[in-house]
Write a structure and sequence with these properties.
The chain is α+β, with helices and mostly antiparallel strands. It has 13 helices and 8 strands. An 8-stranded antiparallel sheet has the order 4-3-2-1-5-6-7-8.
């Protein structure tokens, strides 16, 4: 046995076992990811919501202090964690509230407010929605950080399976023309051709989606790293200061931040004491205006007692990598044409996974390897036909 043959067999084992271990979870991720591509359209179809007031173009935004006060009237006993500008509807905003400033933000309620009139719109419970269930299955399977890290491991195995598959199948596929589909051959050969063709067409896309998915599963760890790194540096001199007895104007804090970072617009505000701020600051996160820079955030820290800017910095590379990976993974940065493309590629990936499982089951039954199916067609057809 030559060194090349031994190496190919080792790569074959890597491809076999990484594929077998991750395939069922990848199928689940592809199936749940498909409706998430169109989550906005699905929510609009299945759930009604109060529309913001129609206002002329150029109408100024409402005073944020008044907007916050109106939101809290509808959530007695709860405190604000975040103020969020709706990326999909510039006429609406969200106030995220929790039972206390230290409560788990993943359990918060979201109150929708009119961005121009400061009027209360609604506070829907999204936890029973189809898209929410799909999102939880897709991100952590309802088991939190452990689920995210486990799915991240499956994503790594998926990427290894793709790379090893290229190495294993490339020598054998040289015997066939690119795109060959042997329609008159036995079922296992037809499925093999479909599996290989779809797989090679999807190589770059599956690697991008798989790798960005892995990065997204590390989001909680990335946030912790940022908190104990850059955020701690930016707020070090306030570490021993008592929380402010009275908060400065939220509206003024956002204005100060916007003036300090020209060319960017507010994305969300983290209130003092929340995970994205310190106990002494409003953290105003601003974003750019282009398709790429709109996904990148820059924090501006405003002293919550005096209303003055204390620091603003670009996010570290690892946080920016996370921000860029999110739209790449879900394909939600290029409008409906990109969503449709992402959906088609997702369906083709499901085809690759299903055919891979089928081929493995048939090979176990008939003892037919992929290499033999390509290299010795007549003999393989006969053996499969009689199995």
């Amino acid at each position: 046995m030559t060194a090349a043959t031994r190496s190919l067999r080792r790569w074959g084992l890597v491809h076999k076992w990484t594929s077998l271990i991750c395939t069922l979870f990848m199928l689940m991720l592809c199936i749940t990811g498909l409706p998430l591509i169109f989550h906005e359209e699905i929510d609009d179809l299945l759930h009604s919501q109060v529309k913001p007031a129609e206002v002329p173009a150029g109408t100024p935004s409402a005073n944020l202090d008044q907007l916050l006060a109106n939101a809290l009237k509808h959530t007695p006993g709860e405190v604000p964690h975040f103020l969020v500008w709706d990326r999909d509807d510039p006429n609406a905003m969200f106030v995220s509230v929790g039972k206390s400033i230290t409560s788990d933000p993943s359990q918060n309620r979201f109150v929708r407010m009119d961005a121009h009139t400061a009027a209360f719109l609604d506070a829907p419970d999204v936890t029973g929605r189809f898209t929410y269930i799909m999102l939880k299955l897709h991100t952590d399977m309802f088991v939190g950080l452990a689920g995210k890290l486990f799915l991240g491991l499956m994503g790594i195995l998926f990427c290894i399976a793709i790379i090893s598959g290229i190495v294993v199948y490339a020598p054998s596929m040289r015997k066939l023309n690119f795109g060959t589909y042997r329609s008159k051959r036995t079922r296992i050969v037809r499925w093999l051709d479909l599996h290989n063709l779809a797989g090679i067409l999807l190589v770059m896309w599956t690697l991008v989606v798989g790798f960005t998915g892995v990065i997204n599963t590390w989001a909680d760890l990335v946030v912790k790293l940022w908190q104990f790194g850059q955020l701690a540096e930016m707020t070090a001199q306030y570490r021993d200061r008592a929380p402010p007895a009275r908060l400065a104007s939220l509206h003024s804090a956002v204005d100060v931040a916007a003036k300090a970072v020209p060319g960017m617009q507010p994305s969300f505000v983290a209130f003092p004491g929340t995970i994205f701020s310190s106990k002494s600051h409003y953290a105003v996160f601003l974003r750019g205006n282009t398709p790429v820079t709109s996904r990148l955030l820059k924090p501006a820290l405003i002293d919550a007692e005096t209303g003055q800017l204390t620091d603003t910095r670009d996010m570290p590379w690892y946080v920016s990598t996370l921000f860029i990976s999110q739209p790449l993974h879900f394909g939600d940065y290029g409008g409906m044409p990109l969503k449709v493309l992402w959906a088609v590629l997702d369906i083709l990936t499901i085809v690759v996974l299903v055919t891979g499982v089928y081929l493995w089951m048939r090979r176990r039954k008939s003892g037919v390897s992929v290499e033999r199916a390509i290299a010795r067609p007549s003999a393989i057809d006969a053996s499969v036909a009689t199995s």
